[in-house]
Amino acid sequence: MTTTVAFIGLGHMGGPMAANLVSAGYRVLGHDLVESCLSAAVAAGVEAARSAVEAAAVADVVITMLPAGRHVLSLYGPEGLLAAARPGTLFVDCSTIDVADSRAAHAAAEAAGHRSLDAPVSGGVVGAEAGTLTFMAGGEESAFAQAEPLLAVMGKKAVHCGDAGAGQAAKICNNMILGVSMIAVSEAFVLAESLGLSDQALYDVASAASGQCWALTVNCPVPGPVPASPANRDYRPGFAAPLMAKDLQLAANALRAGGIDAELGLRAAELYARFAEGPGADQDFSGIVRAIRAATSNPTDTQKGSTT
Ligand code: NAD
Questions:
Q1: 245 neighbors 282 (Cβ within 8 angstroms)
Q2: Which of 113, 117, 108, 106 is nearest to 144 (CA)?
Protein backbone atom coordinates (compact mmCIF):
# COMPACT_ATOMS: atom_id res chain seq x y z
CA MET A 1 0.00 0.00 0.00
CA THR A 2 1.31 3.46 -0.87
CA THR A 3 2.47 5.50 2.10
CA THR A 4 0.61 8.80 2.35
CA VAL A 5 2.73 11.73 3.49
CA ALA A 6 1.40 15.05 4.79
CA PHE A 7 4.03 17.71 4.04
CA ILE A 8 3.55 20.99 5.88
CA GLY A 9 5.77 23.91 4.88
CA LEU A 10 6.55 23.93 1.17
CA GLY A 11 9.10 26.75 1.09
CA HIS A 12 12.65 26.79 -0.25
CA MET A 13 13.46 23.46 1.36
CA GLY A 14 10.09 21.76 1.83
CA GLY A 15 8.94 22.32 -1.75
CA PRO A 16 11.71 20.34 -3.44
CA MET A 17 11.79 17.73 -0.65
CA ALA A 18 8.08 17.05 -1.18
CA ALA A 19 8.61 16.93 -4.95
CA ASN A 20 11.29 14.27 -4.52
CA LEU A 21 8.89 12.14 -2.46
CA VAL A 22 6.31 12.41 -5.26
CA SER A 23 8.94 11.37 -7.82
CA ALA A 24 9.74 8.32 -5.70
CA GLY A 25 6.09 7.21 -5.78
CA TYR A 26 4.75 8.52 -2.46
CA ARG A 27 1.32 10.14 -2.26
CA VAL A 28 2.03 13.58 -0.82
CA LEU A 29 -0.65 15.91 0.54
CA GLY A 30 0.89 19.33 1.01
CA HIS A 31 0.02 22.57 2.72
CA ASP A 32 1.60 26.01 2.98
CA LEU A 33 0.16 29.35 4.02
CA VAL A 34 1.72 30.99 0.95
CA GLU A 35 -0.28 30.29 -2.20
CA SER A 36 2.73 30.47 -4.56
CA CYS A 37 4.58 27.79 -2.52
CA LEU A 38 1.53 25.53 -2.62
CA SER A 39 0.99 25.98 -6.36
CA ALA A 40 4.67 25.29 -7.13
CA ALA A 41 4.39 22.05 -5.16
CA VAL A 42 1.16 21.11 -6.94
CA ALA A 43 2.95 21.59 -10.27
CA ALA A 44 5.46 18.99 -9.02
CA GLY A 45 2.71 16.48 -8.25
CA VAL A 46 1.84 17.29 -4.61
CA GLU A 47 -1.89 17.20 -3.83
CA ALA A 48 -3.07 20.46 -2.27
CA ALA A 49 -4.72 20.10 1.13
CA ARG A 50 -7.05 22.86 2.29
CA SER A 51 -5.37 22.87 5.68
CA ALA A 52 -2.49 21.23 7.50
CA VAL A 53 -4.99 19.43 9.73
CA GLU A 54 -6.83 18.00 6.72
CA ALA A 55 -3.55 16.58 5.37
CA ALA A 56 -2.50 15.12 8.74
CA ALA A 57 -5.85 13.38 9.23
CA VAL A 58 -5.25 10.95 6.36
CA ALA A 59 -1.46 10.61 6.54
CA ASP A 60 0.78 7.75 7.64
CA VAL A 61 3.67 10.20 8.08
CA VAL A 62 3.52 13.95 8.78
CA ILE A 63 6.62 15.93 7.78
CA THR A 64 7.02 19.55 8.86
CA MET A 65 9.57 21.96 7.34
CA LEU A 66 8.85 25.26 9.06
CA PRO A 67 10.76 28.43 9.98
CA ALA A 68 11.01 28.04 13.78
CA GLY A 69 9.95 26.14 16.89
CA ARG A 70 6.92 28.31 17.54
CA HIS A 71 5.46 27.31 14.15
CA VAL A 72 5.97 23.62 14.88
CA LEU A 73 4.53 23.82 18.41
CA SER A 74 1.54 25.88 17.36
CA LEU A 75 0.72 23.48 14.50
CA TYR A 76 1.11 20.47 16.80
CA GLY A 77 -0.94 22.24 19.52
CA PRO A 78 -4.57 22.07 20.63
CA GLU A 79 -6.90 21.00 17.81
CA GLY A 80 -3.86 20.83 15.55
CA LEU A 81 -1.99 18.11 13.73
CA LEU A 82 -1.56 15.76 16.69
CA ALA A 83 -5.28 15.72 17.45
CA ALA A 84 -6.22 15.27 13.79
CA ALA A 85 -3.83 12.41 12.98
CA ARG A 86 -4.70 8.74 13.36
CA PRO A 87 -3.10 7.14 16.45
CA GLY A 88 0.41 5.90 15.78
CA THR A 89 1.15 8.38 12.98
CA LEU A 90 4.85 9.15 12.54
CA PHE A 91 5.71 12.86 12.94
CA VAL A 92 9.01 13.93 11.40
CA ASP A 93 10.06 17.53 12.02
CA CYS A 94 12.81 18.54 9.60
CA SER A 95 12.81 22.23 10.60
CA THR A 96 15.83 23.65 12.45
CA ILE A 97 14.45 24.62 15.86
CA ASP A 98 15.46 25.09 19.46
CA VAL A 99 16.42 21.85 21.23
CA ALA A 100 13.96 22.63 24.05
CA ASP A 101 11.13 23.25 21.54
CA SER A 102 12.02 20.03 19.77
CA ARG A 103 11.83 18.06 23.01
CA ALA A 104 8.47 19.69 23.79
CA ALA A 105 7.21 18.70 20.32
CA HIS A 106 8.34 15.09 20.87
CA ALA A 107 6.62 14.97 24.28
CA ALA A 108 3.37 16.35 22.84
CA ALA A 109 3.42 13.86 19.96
CA GLU A 110 4.05 10.94 22.28
CA ALA A 111 1.37 12.09 24.75
CA ALA A 112 -1.09 12.10 21.82
CA GLY A 113 -0.18 8.50 20.96
CA HIS A 114 2.10 9.19 18.00
CA ARG A 115 5.71 8.44 17.08
CA SER A 116 8.12 11.28 16.63
CA LEU A 117 11.47 12.16 15.13
CA ASP A 118 13.42 15.41 14.88
CA ALA A 119 15.36 15.31 11.62
CA PRO A 120 16.93 18.67 10.71
CA VAL A 121 19.03 18.80 7.59
CA SER A 122 22.18 20.21 6.13
CA GLY A 123 22.80 20.64 2.43
CA GLY A 124 20.69 23.70 1.67
CA VAL A 125 18.32 24.28 -1.24
CA VAL A 126 20.74 22.63 -3.68
CA GLY A 127 20.72 19.47 -1.55
CA ALA A 128 16.94 19.61 -1.17
CA GLU A 129 16.49 19.80 -4.93
CA ALA A 130 19.05 17.10 -5.70
CA GLY A 131 17.87 14.77 -2.92
CA THR A 132 21.33 14.86 -1.34
CA LEU A 133 20.55 16.30 2.10
CA THR A 134 22.14 14.98 5.27
CA PHE A 135 19.61 14.27 8.02
CA MET A 136 20.54 14.22 11.71
CA ALA A 137 17.80 12.54 13.66
CA GLY A 138 16.64 12.27 17.26
CA GLY A 139 14.00 9.95 18.65
CA GLU A 140 13.35 6.28 19.18
CA GLU A 141 15.25 3.79 17.04
CA SER A 142 11.98 2.36 15.68
CA ALA A 143 10.78 5.82 14.60
CA PHE A 144 14.09 6.37 12.82
CA ALA A 145 13.80 2.98 11.10
CA GLN A 146 10.29 3.83 9.90
CA ALA A 147 11.43 7.21 8.55
CA GLU A 148 14.60 5.93 6.90
CA PRO A 149 13.10 5.05 3.48
CA LEU A 150 11.68 8.57 3.15
CA LEU A 151 14.89 10.19 4.35
CA ALA A 152 16.76 8.10 1.78
CA VAL A 153 14.63 9.64 -0.98
CA MET A 154 15.24 13.21 0.21
CA GLY A 155 18.87 12.80 1.24
CA LYS A 156 22.10 10.90 0.79
CA LYS A 157 22.80 10.26 4.46
CA ALA A 158 20.79 9.97 7.67
CA VAL A 159 22.45 9.69 11.08
CA HIS A 160 20.49 8.60 14.14
CA CYS A 161 22.07 10.82 16.80
CA GLY A 162 20.15 9.70 19.88
CA ASP A 163 16.96 10.48 21.78
CA ALA A 164 14.46 13.31 21.33
CA GLY A 165 16.20 16.54 20.29
CA ALA A 166 19.53 14.89 19.49
CA GLY A 167 19.23 15.77 15.80
CA GLN A 168 18.73 19.45 16.63
CA ALA A 169 21.62 19.28 19.09
CA ALA A 170 23.92 17.85 16.39
CA LYS A 171 22.81 20.51 13.93
CA ILE A 172 23.51 23.49 16.20
CA CYS A 173 26.81 22.06 17.47
CA ASN A 174 28.02 21.49 13.90
CA ASN A 175 26.93 24.93 12.77
CA MET A 176 28.55 26.56 15.79
CA ILE A 177 31.85 24.97 14.68
CA LEU A 178 31.19 26.27 11.17
CA GLY A 179 30.28 29.81 12.22
CA VAL A 180 33.27 30.18 14.54
CA SER A 181 35.66 28.64 12.00
CA MET A 182 34.41 30.91 9.19
CA ILE A 183 35.10 33.95 11.35
CA ALA A 184 38.55 32.60 12.27
CA VAL A 185 39.43 31.90 8.62
CA SER A 186 38.14 35.34 7.57
CA GLU A 187 40.12 37.12 10.29
CA ALA A 188 43.23 35.22 9.21
CA PHE A 189 42.84 36.38 5.59
CA VAL A 190 42.36 40.01 6.69
CA LEU A 191 45.41 39.74 8.95
CA ALA A 192 47.42 38.18 6.11
CA GLU A 193 46.40 40.99 3.77
CA SER A 194 47.53 43.60 6.32
CA LEU A 195 50.87 41.79 6.65
CA GLY A 196 51.40 41.77 2.88
CA LEU A 197 50.79 38.02 2.51
CA SER A 198 48.71 37.06 -0.54
CA ASP A 199 45.42 35.20 -0.16
CA GLN A 200 46.76 32.40 -2.33
CA ALA A 201 49.91 32.00 -0.24
CA LEU A 202 47.92 31.77 2.99
CA TYR A 203 45.56 29.30 1.33
CA ASP A 204 48.39 27.13 0.01
CA VAL A 205 49.95 26.89 3.46
CA ALA A 206 46.85 26.64 5.69
CA SER A 207 45.03 24.16 3.43
CA ALA A 208 47.98 21.79 3.82
CA ALA A 209 48.63 22.59 7.48
CA SER A 210 46.77 22.59 10.77
CA GLY A 211 44.51 25.51 9.77
CA GLN A 212 42.74 23.25 7.29
CA CYS A 213 38.93 23.21 7.62
CA TRP A 214 35.73 23.25 5.51
CA ALA A 215 35.40 27.04 5.84
CA LEU A 216 38.82 27.35 4.18
CA THR A 217 38.99 24.59 1.61
CA VAL A 218 35.35 24.37 0.43
CA ASN A 219 33.71 27.70 1.24
CA CYS A 220 36.86 29.86 1.10
CA PRO A 221 35.81 33.43 2.01
CA VAL A 222 38.13 35.15 -0.49
CA PRO A 223 37.85 34.80 -4.28
CA GLY A 224 40.53 32.85 -6.10
CA PRO A 225 41.84 29.84 -4.20
CA VAL A 226 38.62 27.76 -4.38
CA PRO A 227 36.83 28.61 -7.66
CA ALA A 228 33.47 27.13 -6.61
CA SER A 229 33.21 29.07 -3.35
CA PRO A 230 30.52 31.83 -3.11
CA ALA A 231 33.26 34.50 -2.81
CA ASN A 232 33.82 34.03 -6.56
CA ARG A 233 30.23 35.05 -7.36
CA ASP A 234 30.00 38.14 -5.20
CA TYR A 235 28.95 36.08 -2.16
CA ARG A 236 25.64 34.89 -3.62
CA PRO A 237 24.51 32.07 -1.27
CA GLY A 238 25.40 29.25 -0.70
CA PHE A 239 24.41 29.20 2.87
CA ALA A 240 22.81 32.55 3.55
CA ALA A 241 24.10 34.63 6.46
CA PRO A 242 20.60 34.99 8.05
CA LEU A 243 20.37 31.18 8.29
CA MET A 244 23.78 31.02 9.98
CA ALA A 245 22.65 33.80 12.32
CA LYS A 246 19.52 31.80 13.16
CA ASP A 247 21.46 28.60 13.87
CA LEU A 248 24.01 30.43 16.03
CA GLN A 249 21.18 32.04 17.98
CA LEU A 250 19.79 28.56 18.68
CA ALA A 251 23.27 27.49 19.79
CA ALA A 252 23.56 30.60 21.99
CA ASN A 253 20.20 29.82 23.62
CA ALA A 254 21.40 26.31 24.42
CA LEU A 255 24.78 27.60 25.67
CA ARG A 256 23.10 30.03 28.03
CA ALA A 257 20.56 27.43 29.19
CA GLY A 258 23.43 25.07 29.96
CA GLY A 259 25.58 27.75 31.61
CA ILE A 260 28.41 26.87 29.22
CA ASP A 261 31.38 29.20 29.04
CA ALA A 262 31.66 29.24 25.24
CA GLU A 263 32.86 32.75 24.49
CA LEU A 264 33.54 32.16 20.81
CA GLY A 265 30.17 30.57 20.12
CA LEU A 266 28.35 33.45 21.82
CA ARG A 267 30.51 36.06 20.07
CA ALA A 268 29.95 34.38 16.70
CA ALA A 269 26.20 34.58 17.31
CA GLU A 270 26.51 38.34 17.95
CA LEU A 271 28.69 38.97 14.90
CA TYR A 272 26.45 37.00 12.56
CA ALA A 273 23.28 38.60 13.94
CA ARG A 274 24.71 42.04 13.15
CA PHE A 275 26.03 40.98 9.74
CA ALA A 276 22.74 39.31 8.75
CA GLU A 277 20.72 42.38 9.70
CA GLY A 278 23.03 44.61 7.66
CA PRO A 279 25.07 43.94 4.53
CA GLY A 280 24.85 40.18 4.89
CA ALA A 281 21.06 40.02 4.57
CA ASP A 282 21.28 38.47 1.12
CA GLN A 283 24.87 37.22 1.15
CA ASP A 284 26.55 33.91 1.76
CA PHE A 285 27.78 33.62 5.36
CA SER A 286 31.40 33.77 4.11
CA GLY A 287 30.73 37.43 3.19
CA ILE A 288 31.52 38.21 6.82
CA VAL A 289 35.13 38.60 5.63
CA ARG A 290 34.07 41.85 3.96
CA ALA A 291 32.56 43.15 7.21
CA ILE A 292 35.78 42.31 9.05
CA ARG A 293 37.86 44.01 6.33
CA ALA A 294 35.59 47.07 6.31
CA ALA A 295 35.80 47.40 10.07
CA THR A 296 39.59 47.08 9.83
CA SER A 297 39.93 50.02 7.46
CA ASN A 298 37.38 52.04 9.43
CA PRO A 299 37.83 51.53 13.17
CA THR A 300 34.55 53.34 13.94
CA ASP A 301 32.56 50.64 12.13
CA THR A 302 30.38 48.77 14.62
CA GLN A 303 31.66 45.46 13.21
CA LYS A 304 34.95 46.23 14.90
CA GLY A 305 33.46 44.98 18.15
CA SER A 306 32.45 47.14 21.06
CA THR A 307 31.67 44.72 23.82
CA THR A 308 35.08 44.90 25.46
P1 NAD B 1 10.99 29.00 4.02
O2 NAD B 1 10.62 30.22 4.77
O3 NAD B 1 11.31 29.10 2.58
O4 NAD B 1 9.82 27.88 4.17
C5 NAD B 1 9.02 27.72 5.32
C6 NAD B 1 7.58 27.62 4.84
O7 NAD B 1 6.73 27.32 5.95
C8 NAD B 1 7.06 28.93 4.24
O9 NAD B 1 6.69 28.71 2.89
C10 NAD B 1 5.88 29.29 5.13
O11 NAD B 1 4.80 29.87 4.41
C12 NAD B 1 5.50 27.92 5.68
N13 NAD B 1 4.69 27.98 6.89
C14 NAD B 1 4.91 28.71 8.02
N15 NAD B 1 3.93 28.49 8.91
C16 NAD B 1 3.08 27.62 8.35
C17 NAD B 1 1.87 27.01 8.76
N18 NAD B 1 1.33 27.27 9.96
N19 NAD B 1 1.23 26.16 7.92
C20 NAD B 1 1.77 25.89 6.71
N21 NAD B 1 2.92 26.44 6.24
C22 NAD B 1 3.56 27.29 7.06
O23 NAD B 1 12.19 28.35 4.83
P24 NAD B 1 13.22 27.22 4.30
O25 NAD B 1 14.44 27.89 3.76
O26 NAD B 1 12.47 26.25 3.47
O27 NAD B 1 13.66 26.58 5.70
C28 NAD B 1 12.80 25.70 6.39
C29 NAD B 1 13.55 25.17 7.60
O30 NAD B 1 14.72 24.49 7.17
C31 NAD B 1 14.01 26.25 8.57
O32 NAD B 1 13.84 25.78 9.89
C33 NAD B 1 15.48 26.44 8.22
O34 NAD B 1 16.25 26.90 9.31
C35 NAD B 1 15.86 25.04 7.81
N36 NAD B 1 17.00 24.95 6.87
C37 NAD B 1 17.04 25.77 5.79
C38 NAD B 1 18.12 25.66 4.90
C39 NAD B 1 18.19 26.54 3.68
O40 NAD B 1 19.27 26.57 3.03
N41 NAD B 1 17.13 27.24 3.29
C42 NAD B 1 19.16 24.75 5.16
C43 NAD B 1 19.08 23.91 6.26
C44 NAD B 1 17.98 24.03 7.12
A1: no
A2: 117
- Taken in order 117, 99, 80, 123, the sign of the CA dihedral is negative
Alpha helix segments (H runs only) across 98-198: 99-111, 124-130, 141-154, 166-194
Q: What is the mean pLDDT of the chain?
A: 95
d(CA 244, CA 273): 9
Confidence of residue 296 (pLDDT cuts 50, 70, 90): confident
pTM of this structure: 0.93
Q: Are 29 and 4 in contact (CB under 8 A)?
A: yes
Strand-pairing partners, residue 240, are 284
Give me Rg for the CA atoms of the chain. Answer: 21
Q: Are 109 and 76 in contact (CB under 8 A)?
A: yes
- Asked about 171 being catalytic, the answer comes back as yes
Query: Could you tell me if the CB of 102 is within 6 A of ligand 1?
Result: no
Residue 252: pLDDT above 90? yes
- Cα dihedral 282, 64, 130, 157 in deg (nearest 10): 110
Whether 100 lines ligand 1, by a CB cut-off of 6 Å, is no
Closest-CA residue to 43 (of 22, 65, 66): 22
CB 150 within 8 A of CB 61: yes
Residue 246: closest CA among 76, 66, 117 = 66
Asked whether the beta carbons of 248 and 175 are under 8 A apart, the reply is yes
Angle between helices 166-194 and 288-297 (to 10 degrees): 40
Strands 155-162 and 133-139 come out as: parallel
The answer, yes or no, to whether any atom of ligand 1 lies below 6 A from the CB of 15, is no
